[in-house]
Amino acid sequence: MKRWICILIIFYAWHPLADETKAATCKACHGPAGVSANDLWPNLAGQKEGYIVKQLHAFREGSRVDPLMSPVSKMLSDDDIKQLAAYYSHLKAAE
Amino acid sequence: MTRVRGGILLIVLLFAASAQAYPEYAVRYNNNSCTACHLSPVGGGPRTVDGKLFGAHGYALNKWLAQDYVSADFRALFYAPERPAASKSGIGIMSGSVAGHVTLDSAQRFHLVIEQNLAGFAQAAPRDTYALYRFNQEGKPAWFETLLIGRFREPFGIVTDEHRTYTRIQSGTEYYSEEAGALLSGEATGAHVHYDLAYVDGENTGGTSLAQNGAGQWGSVVNLRWMPGAAFIGTSYSYHRHDPREDSRHALSFYSVVSIARMTEDRVPLTIEVEHVRTWNWGGNLSRGFVNDQGYAASLSHTQADGWYALLRWDFSQRFALLYKFDWLTPDRSFPADYYQRYGLGIRYWLGPGVELQVRGELARATPTSEKDSHSIGAENASFALLTVRF
């Protein structure tokens, strides 16, 4: 019994795909499928990969400032930014 | 009937939400400044447009409400104690506040916030009402970020919307304890330390007038919060001068919020809040409904008290969370066998944009002889449902 519980916990904790997991932080504002629920925050699904990379670097380095994005971007490494950009650029854009 | 009404009023008073703030979001999203979502650097109270949109929890917010000028907060409670015949049960409106907030200059440095509570407990009383100056308009961390003058919550301990929390009652930092004064906030840049320094007009002035019974009454609060990563730890100290000075009230808080969710990128969506508060001479606050036996309450007025608060939150989704809460209070450290303890389990669900329902059952235990089987707030098993609507 204990073994099955351990297996379930490990599965629950580690099963998401890497790129999707990185996007967990983004989903709260940009939507679970990269489509924002409001007019003021942008959709990320289908956005150009290079544009996402550039903007996340700008937030992280401080050349672009936003009270929500600046702190969040500081949690990201260069690899994280690349993975996120690839993940969102490959999602289907909102119609 | 009068007793029932009094009981409901009491419940409303003690359940009254301490504004609304979720420190777990600050940790989860790496933001040590409450002003990302709230107008006040203390957190709670009226929110910025980003705060409103974030608080919509993925629901589309009416575009007319997604603005920076007006906000509102309505709260209603259904309370069911284990022994409803004992008086305290029913539905109560806790608060119905409307706030207006404007930016006075094009550089967006001067802000004015006026919030009035129109219904429920402390109705017809102002809540967050202040003039705010932002030293740094870009929103970057800076040594001097905001100066606030007016009526505000003291930046003491964990500012949360948790209800009936012993540590808040113990230290006089409940919903209705806003004070008038000045507040300077900022961040030690590079060190990830947020600070708040407040000078207030003495406790229990209601924050609307000068202190009575001694023009020299004053209080001060220092709050420091260090957030190096997926957790923050903080400490607050408050001092309220009385005459004679040996009656002056002090309170000290150590608190921490740990986001396992952030550490595991939401694979384990757990957040843990813990606070320990020690107070000196604040025991008189417990006579306001928390303790049933007024003789016992009177004996606590000059004691040292210890309180603990812990909250575990497991987010199953963006809109559904499981809560476990633990509370502990020793009103007099000289008699550690006399304590109150409460633990509860419940859920929080967002039904719509800014529409939140919380349902929880709580078991309480009190060991002081006169409180053991009393119906006081501090010792009562109860279930409740709390509906909050705000934008």
Explain how this protein is built.
The complex is a heterodimer of chains A (95) and B (391). Chain A has helices spanning 2-14, 18-22, 24-30, 49-61, 69-73, 78-89. By secondary structure, chain A is an all-alpha fold. Chain A has a single domain (17-89), classed as Orthogonal Bundle (Cytochrome Bc1 Complex, Chain D, domain 2), CATH 1.10.760.10. In chain A, helix 4 runs antiparallel to helix 6. Chain A is globular and about 55 Å long. The model of chain A has no long low-confidence stretch (mean pLDDT 86). Chain B has 391 residues and is mainly beta. Chain B has a single domain (2-390), classed as Porin. Chain B is 11% helix and 43% strand. Chain B has six helices and 16 strands. Chain B has helices at residues 2-15, 23-28, 49-55, 166-170, 260-263, 294-299; strands at 70-81, 90-103, 110-120, 125-134, 146-152, 179-188, 193-200, 219-226, 231-240, 249-259, 270-280, 304-315, 320-330, 340-352, 355-366, 382-390. In chain B, a hairpin with a 4-residue loop joins strand 6 (179-188) and strand 7. Chain B starts with a helix and ends with a strand. Residues 8-19 of chain B have low confidence and may be disordered. Chains A and B meet through helix 1, helix 3 and helix 5 of A and helix 3 of B.
- Give the oligomer, counting copies of the same chain as homo and different chains as hetero: heterodimer
Main beta sheet strand tally, sense and closure of chain B:
16 strands, antiparallel, barrel
What share of the residues of chain A lie within helices? 55-70%
What is the spatial order of strands in the main beta sheet of chain B? 1-2-3-4-5-6-7-8-9-10-11-12-13-14-15-16
Strand content of chain B: 35-45%
Structural class of chain A: mainly alpha
Assigned CATH architecture of chain B:
Beta Barrel
What number is the mean pLDDT of chain A? 86
Looking at the structure, the CATH topology of chain A is Cytochrome Bc1 Complex, Chain D, domain 2
**How far is the first residue's CA from the last residue's CA of chain B?**
35 Å
User: Structural class of the helices, strands and pairings of chain B?
Assistant: mainly beta
User: What is the arithmetic mean of pLDDT of chain B?
Assistant: 87
Unreliable sequence segments of chain B:
8-19
